[in-house]
TrEMBL record:
Residues 235-249 have a biased composition (Low complexity). Component of the PEX13-PEX14 docking complex, a translocon channel that specifically mediates the import of peroxisomal cargo proteins bound to PEX5 receptor. The PEX13-PEX14 docking complex forms a large import pore which can be opened to a diameter of about 9 nm. Mechanistically, PEX5 receptor along with cargo proteins associates with the PEX14 subunit of the PEX13-PEX14 docking complex in the cytosol, leading to the insertion of the receptor into the organelle membrane with the concomitant translocation of the cargo into the peroxisome matrix. It comes from Malassezia restricta (strain ATCC 96810 / NBRC 103918 / CBS 7877). The keyword Transport applies. Residues 52-71, 174-193, 235-270 are annotated as: Disordered. This is Peroxisomal membrane protein PEX14.
């Protein structure tokens, strides 16, 4: 079927190919695809632009498609021809592949290989020294913290001792002041009691002295009266001539009895 078409020349449209294209275009299964996709498919099958235009014109004047019971035969699908490659293509591919591989290997050596290889002895020693330095630094900080805490504890203990001493001193002063007040109250009570006793004793002494003075005065008045009466009785029995010298030789009249001072009487009344 391809031999007659080759003898007809490239300019003459091939009737079988046009018929196959018309049947393809009228197929309900390809109606959902766009026109450009269908034209591209026909071009990939080897149809020329004249054949595609004739098939499109026939599809435009053709009656509605027949029912699916009598479909038109589809054109066979030909695989696309593989492009031919020469040595230049292979050379370019080798150069690009080598460059990409070298870049990947360089990046892997620089960034990935150091993380994948095991650490050597020098790195381990450096890490150990760094850890020991960190440990020493932490231990120094902890020691400084312990010293600071100990100093604070000692300061607080000293302050607590000073406060306790101050409290004890205040308590001692309060107790001493209370004892002094109690002793003063006792002394005042004792002085008051002594003054009361002295007052009572002085009053009793005044009363006794007053009573003794009154008794002595009473006795003295009695004696004076008896002496007067005696003198009078003696003067009445003597002669008148002798009365004058008797009167002249008589003792002077007795003085008035002494009186008790007013302040002694007031103190006695109290």
């Amino acid at each position: 079927m391809s031999e007659p078409s080759e003898r007809m020349g490239p300019s003459a449209p091939r009737a079988d190919m046009v018929a196959n294209a018309v049947s393809f275009l009228e197929d309900p299964n390809v109606q959902s695809s766009s026109m450009s996709q269908r034209i591209s498919f026909l071009e990939s099958k080897g149809l020329t632009s004249q054949e595609i235009d004739r098939a499109l014109s026939q599809v435009g004047r053709a009656p509605p498609p027949l029912p699916p019971s009598a479909p038109y035969p589809m054109m066979p699908a030909y695989p696309p021809a593989r492009p031919q490659r020469d040595w230049r293509d292979w050379f370019i591919m080798a150069v690009v592949s080598g460059t990409v591989g070298y870049g990947v290997v360089s990046l892997a050596r620089r960034y990935l290989y150091p993380h994948l290889q095991p650490p050597n002895k020098t790195v381990l020693e450096e890490e150990r020294e760094a850890l020991e330095a960190k440990y020493d630094e932490v231990a120094l900080h902890l020691e400084e913290l312990d010293q600071t805490t100990e100093a604070m504890s000692q300061g607080l203990a000293a302050q607590q001792s000073a406060i306790q001493a101050s409290v004890r001193g205040v308590n001692d002063l309060v107790a001493e002041s209370r004892s002094r007040e109690e002793q003063r109250d006792k002394d005042l009570e004792h002085m008051k009691s002594e003054m009361e006793s002295m007052r009572e004793e002085f009053a009793s002494m005044l009363e006794r002295s007053r009573a003794s003075s009154i008794t002595a005065l009473t006795d003295l008045q009695g004696e004076l009266k008896s002496l007067r009466s005696l003198l009078v009785s003696r003067g009445g029995l003597s002669t008148p001539s002798a009365s004058a010298p008797a009167e002249s030789s008589a003792p002077p009249p007795a003085k008035a009895a002494p009186q008790i001072p007013a302040w002694q009487l007031e103190s006695h009344d109290e």
